[in-house]
Amino acid sequence: MSLGQQLAPHLPFLRRYARALTGSQQHGDSYVKAALEAIVQAPDQFPRDVDPRLGLYKTFQAIWGSVNVANDDEPEAGGEGSDNESIARARLARITPLPRQALLLTAMEGFTPEDAGYLIDTDADEIDRLVSEALAEIEEQTRAEVLIIEDEPIIAMDLETIVRDLGHEVTGVAVTRDEAVAQAKAHRPGLVLADIQLADDSSGIDAVKDILSEFTVPVIFITAFPERLLTGERPEPTFLITKPFQRSTVKAAIAQALFFDRATVPA
């Protein structure tokens, strides 16, 4: 099996991590593209002594680290010509601190502390310390009002419990597109958790589009088929949770979505 064939199944999940890391589909996917280009240009430098998924993430982390540390810029050229202060603020807002990287690698991507340590060049004990630091920071995070769009009662109850345990308030639980839009208009949320397939065969994606046409709000999508929304070929979610989910995954995703939402608010 070729290296490309070995890496292909892992690309959707690397996109998920990259988007959560940068808070943007565009920037996350551009880092993934840069990592793939590096592998194509120098296949002999790809780590062959570890699992292909681990090697893929290691290559990505090297690109992420070199760009942010050395250049403090994205891997692709571009920009809209805003003033230097605004550009600097935007770049800083996209740099996820090391503790949050450790949390995302373990809670969202499912790496062991040992593997996460390999990816960010430290040991398992340090990963545990970094994760604890990230969780402590999350405890101090500004509380949000959350709208849950989910038609499965047990899953909705589980999400509601997780959200409340994090100290956030649940504004409502909607089971259809129309209900979700109505609830969002009646009580504007600070975060939306949205299932893809809803009770009346309507789409959570369409519900979110309707809500976003009214106001801007961070959104986390929940789906049993994440690879369908992580192709990198069209506008897709920045934050995505896979069913069945772990509480730690939901916690990390909520914290990261709110982290970038707060970071983009002008000082």
UniProtKB/TrEMBL annotation:
Transmembrane spans: none
The Response regulatory domain extends over 145-258
Tell me where in this chain the PTM 4-aspartylphosphate is found: D195
Checking InterPro entries in the record gives:
Bact_response_regulator, CheY-like_superfamily, PhyR_sigma2, PhyR_sigma4, Sig_resp-reg_PhyR, Sig_transdc_resp-reg_receiver
SMART domains named among the record's database cross-references: REC (SM00448)
Q: Which GO terms describe its biological process?
A: phosphorelay signal transduction system
Pfam families recorded for this chain? PhyR_sigma-like (PF22233), PhyR_sigma2 (PF22029), Response_reg (PF00072)
Q: Which SUPFAM superfamilies does its entry note?
A: CheY-like (SSF52172)
Q: Which UniProt keywords apply?
A: Phosphoprotein
Tell whether Cytoplasm is among the UniProt keywords: no
Keyword set includes Transmembrane: no
Protein name listed in UniProt: Putative two-component response regulator
